[in-house]
Amino acid sequence: MLPADWLPRSASVGELADRPWVAGPAGTACGRALERVSAAHGFTPHRAHTALEFPTVPALVAAGLGAAIVPTLALAGPRTDSVALPALPAAGHRRIAALRRPSPSGADPLTDAVVAALREAAQSAGLRRSGPATNPEDTITA
Predict the structure, then answer these.
(1) What's the rounded Cα separation, in Å, for the pair 84 and 89?
(2) Cis check: omega of the bond before 86, within 30 degrees of 0
């Protein structure tokens, strides 16, 4: 994700080597993704800002404060003209699995609602199901 007014729009990650980055904290999925991408392109990113929660990261990018590597699920919400999503290679993927254990009192409607919301968000973002899992319908590759 890039600020829309960064011209010319970068065609490669390497062209962003000297730019500021909005990074996830070390050890988080976004932090590790930035490490992998920058290492693959031979640079150490300048972490101008560190943010853990969304929508903070896209807001900082929209304000022109840096580029960011964000998960596909973070792009499912409304977008503004202040950010650009260049066609760059994926930085990796992760697997989200929900394991629902039966309880003596029966199904938990809250757990079912959370799993349904995750599934709906993933499907609306165009992500696919993968397996194996206890219940294959509960595993989405993001």
Answers:
(1) 15
(2) no
Q: pLDDT tens for residues 59-87?
A: 999 999 999 988 776 776 667 788 888 87
Whether 52 and 79 have beta carbons less than 8 Å apart is answered as: no
In 88-116, which positions are buried (b, 16+ CB within 10 angstroms) versus exposed (e)?
A: eeebeeeebebeeeeeeeeeeeeeeeebe
Amino acid at 21: W
Q: How many CB atoms within 10 Å of residue 54?
A: 15
Instruction: Report the relative pairing of strands 2-3 and 95-97 from DSSP bridges.
Output: unpaired
pLDDT tens track for 83-136:
888 876 666 666 777 777 777 887 788 888 988 888 887 777 777 666 554 454
Flag whether the pTM goes above 0.70: no
Tell me the CA end-to-end span of the chain in Å, nearest whole number.
Answer: 16
**CA R_g for the chain:** 17
Which 8-state DSSP code applies to residue 90? -
